[in-house]
Amino acid sequence: MIKFALMGAGRIGKMHAKNIFSNSKSKLEIVYDLNPHSAKEVANLYGCNIANSPEEAILNNNVDAVFIASATPTHIEYILSSAKAGKAIFCEKPIDLNINKVNQCKKELEQYKVPIHIGFNRRFDASHHSLKQAKVKGEIGNLEMIIISSRDPEPPGVEYLNAAGGFFRDTAVHDFDLTRFILGDDPITEISAYGGVLFSETAKETNDLDTAMFIMKSQLGVLCHINNSRRAVYGYDQRVEIFGSKGMIISDNQSPTSVKKFTNNITNANDPAYHFFIERYDQAYKDQLDIFINCINNNKPTLTNFDDGRNALLIANAAYESLESKKSVKIDYS
Amino acid sequence: MIKFALMGAGRIGKMHAKNIFSNSKSKLEIVYDLNPHSAKEVANLYGCNIANSPEEAILNNNVDAVFIASATPTHIEYILSSAKAGKAIFCEKPIDLNINKVNQCKKELEQYKVPIHIGFNRRFDASHHSLKQAKVKGEIGNLEMIIISSRDPEPPGVEYLNAAGGFFRDTAVHDFDLTRFILGDDPITEISAYGGVLFSETAKETNDLDTAMFIMKSQLGVLCHINNSRRAVYGYDQRVEIFGSKGMIISDNQSPTSVKKFTNNITNANDPAYHFFIERYDQAYKDQLDIFINCINNNKPTLTNFDDGRNALLIANAAYESLESKKSVKIDYS
Amino acid sequence: MIKFALMGAGRIGKMHAKNIFSNSKSKLEIVYDLNPHSAKEVANLYGCNIANSPEEAILNNNVDAVFIASATPTHIEYILSSAKAGKAIFCEKPIDLNINKVNQCKKELEQYKVPIHIGFNRRFDASHHSLKQAKVKGEIGNLEMIIISSRDPEPPGVEYLNAAGGFFRDTAVHDFDLTRFILGDDPITEISAYGGVLFSETAKETNDLDTAMFIMKSQLGVLCHINNSRRAVYGYDQRVEIFGSKGMIISDNQSPTSVKKFTNNITNANDPAYHFFIERYDQAYKDQLDIFINCINNNKPTLTNFDDGRNALLIANAAYESLESKKSVKIDYS
Amino acid sequence: MIKFALMGAGRIGKMHAKNIFSNSKSKLEIVYDLNPHSAKEVANLYGCNIANSPEEAILNNNVDAVFIASATPTHIEYILSSAKAGKAIFCEKPIDLNINKVNQCKKELEQYKVPIHIGFNRRFDASHHSLKQAKVKGEIGNLEMIIISSRDPEPPGVEYLNAAGGFFRDTAVHDFDLTRFILGDDPITEISAYGGVLFSETAKETNDLDTAMFIMKSQLGVLCHINNSRRAVYGYDQRVEIFGSKGMIISDNQSPTSVKKFTNNITNANDPAYHFFIERYDQAYKDQLDIFINCINNNKPTLTNFDDGRNALLIANAAYESLESKKSVKIDYS
Question: N or C: which end of chain A has fewer CB within 10 A?
């Protein structure tokens, strides 16, 4: 039974609280949120304690693992406190938006031997995972192309955007990680990025982008394309395609039902895709938690570690450099 | 080069004229239609002669084969004249609506050795044919069920219905034949029929049906279902499913394009199915003609013969008997 | 908080125990099973008490509702004990295999005012339910046909078959209920049934069937077809189609992933369908429980009641009569 | 009746000969090929004359239009001879592989007022065309992204590659044109290109590429991605996706049948896609010819003109420049 301290009881924190509660191998011990009202809500629903400070949660003797689902600027602080206290760490992405802070954190972490998992939820989706497994089993032969279409249902507000670190670090970073996940041992070596503001007022106000495309090349020469948008009216668009010498595998979108409609206008029409990540990756979040718990219980390394979080940020930074310079940019992981 | 006399230059006759013209192995020699205007139209388009009487067309010395696409009541007369004249015969279904006349015709035909093909176009559709071939190759193991959904886009007018011989002999007869085609050597032995008038004014006026369902059993115990409607707003619905010990094969509907639409209401929506048989079975009609020509040229037996036309009618008659008696009816092919 | 006594801790009982445990509005209070080992297993997993007799579970003062998931012959006994004790009842289908016993039970129940829900899980599947809602909203206009394909992955063993009451009462009964669910106020009035043993040794040994087809007619003339098989190698086949004046809706099969494969042999290939009802209707079972709890909490009538269980059995009995007599059989609900 | 001289009787020439023959509004008057055997084959099949020199074909008095399907290096010579002779011109893509020659040809053509059509067949595919029409009608609102996946079934031989002008000018050029077709009035302004040799021995031998990816930006900011491969084992992959403020439209792959297979391994599996362009664009080639004929008959401008051929080449050249410089390259259409 792994006992968790939960840092952050906002939308995503509440979802994690429910998953910790429902998993028969874990228990929600204590919750902390800057907003005491949010913390109390979670405590009432799932019968846990409330911490009055981050330390009270992290240092709690009953706590085995710290689940960091708070605002991004707190992540490194909580990671380091948890590591010092010898707790296992589950940290929602990103580690931080500033690569220097991430590098500094990496150095400090070297002295602590705690398991740390960065929450790249898509790796744990049954369909994306099945695609990866098929690649590993050689079902498509030699991998030659990866194509990811990843579009949010609607653009977020100004407040969110101001804290998000930019479209590439906030959104595309998931797809950079998914590309890395599929490539496995073969690192991405260069990237070209295009972007624009085609529709979003909030993107314009915050000097951000709402539409982007990337090409990346791996060391073995695999060509990878990602396209991103902040708005897709037919729901959360999450498609992954891998192509190789023996065929192609697509992890396609999913709808809440398997209903098909036929009218005088259309045939075979499915419902819109799941609305957003909470719905689309509902099971992936549960499975990710379960796998994290199993890793701790069995003293196995976590499946997405600190370097996964750092490397995805390095690619996002290189993408911004390419957007600026209009050149292909090499990625330096050192 | 097979030279054809075409009997009947209505809608379906015109389509066959075009196909004869376009096939490099055939030539349209002469056309006859009760309505001289229709015959002239075809003659102008495809550069053939016009006959002033059925005999003039059928007995024409240049003519190798007679294509009968005229009104149903003329079919037997033209079949027999053509047979006497030693011409190969392609006769659109049905042979006749009256089984006694069909039996009499069968007896008379015994003395003539001419090839005769009955126009059950669906057997020659690439998808239905591929389904049949997969069954023959054993891809689904032992056949256990056949399920056919077959629905016209909209009900015909009173004039058509008055001449059509009833829903089972006019429409379901195609599906009885398709079931026989799939079953191959294994004959249908009994049938139960249900029907009703659920929407069509013209069906009501003509004492006909607009909706029907059948279950049939074959000698080997295969269970077969057919459902029919005179109206499907999403286009001509033509689905065939076979199910067996090793799997299932479906020959699905087809649309004019492979376009898929995604809006805030729907995803993966295709265009409506092809409107009706002329569009859906366009290629099947061409292939059927080509195969008929090859049979003649190579002295091979035709692929759908007189008995195929007769047997489908026997099943339709048994279906009417079942509808009346509310019992399962055995089918007597003798 | 609804506190449950669970009767029966076999495969299906265990699944219900988990669902009761996970639902934040219910609690598993006590479990009873003839086999103490099974009861103990459930008690260990979900922290509930163990009853030494059915009465001890049903009459327990803390218990609000009795969940009957035990062997069929015990259902009526437990229903009546629970009713007498004033407990709400959730009873897995069937009520009983003998219509006389069901009728007797119905009469006795009249004196008790307890809520009773019969577990027809398919009504609570999101896709089938969405299909029904679309029909109610008039999306397909007037309903004219219902077509259900319902096939198990593999035939059960002799022991199961000996207790199951025959293919129509065990399996087709779900589809009779689903047809009734879609028809709503419009009752099924007659049925024709076909069946055979095409592959299953255990069906042959137990004098049962493994393949069946039905046509039913409703009072308003809707034609309904069901086909059933005890074996489908591509997984649990659960398709429902409704057809009407404005279009068609299909509730299609579902696979564990949305992966599509493309090789030199095939394109667009999905994984096999979910293996069987536990997987396919996983969420439906949870939703069914939740709705039952809400009905009790809000003093609303249950959504599938005693008569739903009885009427489905009456149709199954009429189907056997038709199979025997080879006639269409009228259904008498009195 | 438009009378054609056909230049070139190779594989593609033969297909065009058949289409000219089958179209009731055109006639194949005369054919020329360097190889007299090829010319004779066409003449025998479709009953036309044989020219002993290009001039004999082009200058023939009966000829209204010249169809240029010969080797690329002959295109400009035949275009100019035909223009001087006042004949309408249908020229297979490309005009030439050298932009200076194309520019020189353009200048010379200014003095002649003959219709000229460049054979970009994909614009005339019913599905791609329907996608474009839906965009024009505003069905997806403002266009924001175009994504084209275009992959040949297998790499060509060394001889073909030596004459083809490189992967971008030979293959990607079709997709550059299709992107331009969809964008309409909004020109492509810059491009980034990636490429590699991942599998093809013949590509390596000829210093060519077998795999490529592009990002392009239009003047209005639309982001466009193309990916190309010389080999797709599941058939000729030809997918086009457009995405905008109101939704998405995909023109998907097509198979010879609508058959779906279900086994213990897979469900919903279609046949492989059409093998290659001759099969996939069979109807598009016929429709393209028909539209060209109608343009001449009605004195309307052709739908793909000389500048369409030139502009696609300019983009391909810019793509090579980007591949070399690893920079985004602006496209200069002057």
Answer: C
Sheet (strand A65-68) strand order: A49-50, A26-32, A2-7, A65-68, A88-92, A116-119
Q: Which of A145, A194, A234 sits opposite D229 (nearest CB)?
A: A145
Q: Name the band, by pLDDT with cuts 50, 70 and 90, for residue B23.
A: confident
Residue in C closest to D264 by C-alpha:
C234
CA atoms within 13 A of residue D210's CA, in its CB half-sphere: 24
Q: At what angle do helices B282-297 and B126-136 cross, to 10 degrees?
A: 60
CB C70 within 8 A of CB C78: yes
Provide the token pair at A147.
């194509």
- The C329-330 sheet, strands edge to edge: A259-262, C247-251, C237-244, C143-151, C223-229, C211-218, C188-196, C329-330
Per-residue pLDDT, A314: 98
Cβ contact, residue pair D217, A231, below 8 Å: no
List the structure tokens of C329.
């059989």
Which of A18, A24, A257 would best serve as a mutation to test chain C binding (most C beta carbons within 10 A)?
A: A257
**Residue D69 host element (H or E):** none
Chain B residues within an 8 Å CB radius of D263: 246-247
* Test mutation, D257, D268, D281, D287, chain B, max B CBs within 10 A: D257
Q: Which of B147, B232, B328 sits opposite C326 (nearest CB)?
A: B328
Residue-wise pLDDT for D208-262, tens only, equals: 999 999 999 999 999 999 999 999 999 999 999 999 999 999 999 999 999 999 9
Q: What is the mean pLDDT of chain A?
A: 97
Token duo for residue B327? 């019992």
ipTM: 0.96
**Please, what are the domains in chain A?**
2-92 (3.40.50.720), 124-278+303-330 (3.30.360.10)
Asked if C137 reaches chain B (Cβ–Cβ under 8 Å), the answer is: no
Is the minimum CB–CB distance between C258 and chain D shorter than 8 Å? Answer: no
pLDDT in tens, A178-235: 999 999 999 999 999 999 999 999 999 999 999 999 999 999 999 999 999 999 999 9
**Residue A272 DSSP code:** P
Q: What is the pLDDT of residue B24?
A: 81
- Judging contacts by C-beta atoms under 8 Å, the chain D residues touching residue A213 are 145, 215, 223, 225
Instruction: Tell me the pLDDT tens digit for each residue of D260-275.
Output: 999 999 999 999 999 9
Helix axis angle, D99-109 relative to D75-84, nearest 10°?
Answer: 0
Pairwise CA distance, residues B306 & B314, whole Å: 13
Q: What whole-number distance in Å separates Cα of residue B70 and Cα of residue B34?
A: 9
The pLDDT value recorded for residue B257 is 97
Length of chain A as a residue count: 334
| pLDDT in the model for residue C120 | 97
User: 3-state class of D114 per DSSP?
Assistant: coil
Q: How far is CA D254 from the centre of its chain?
A: 18
Question: Which residues from B are below 8 Å from C191, CB to CB?
Answer: none
> Contacts of residue C272 in chain B, CB cutoff 8 Å?
none
| pLDDT the model gives residue D23 | 86
CA dihedral for C228, C233, C235, C239, sign (positive or negative): negative
User: Which portions of chain A are predicted below pLDDT 70?
Assistant: none
Say if the Cβ atoms of D194 and A213 lie within 8 Å. Answer: no
Tokens coding B26: 């055939």
Put simply, whether D36 touches B (Cβ < 8 Å) is no
C264 touches chain A (CB under 8 A): yes
Mean pLDDT across B124-139: 98
Q: What ranges in chain C are assigned the alpha helix state H?
A: 11-22, 36-46, 54-58, 75-84, 99-109, 126-136, 158-164, 167, 173-183, 201-205, 277-280, 282-297, 306-325
Q: What share of chain B is helix, strand, coil (3-state, %, to 5)?
A: 40, 25, 35
Q: Which residues from A are below 8 Å from C24, CB to CB?
A: 45
pLDDT at residue D40 is higher than 90: yes
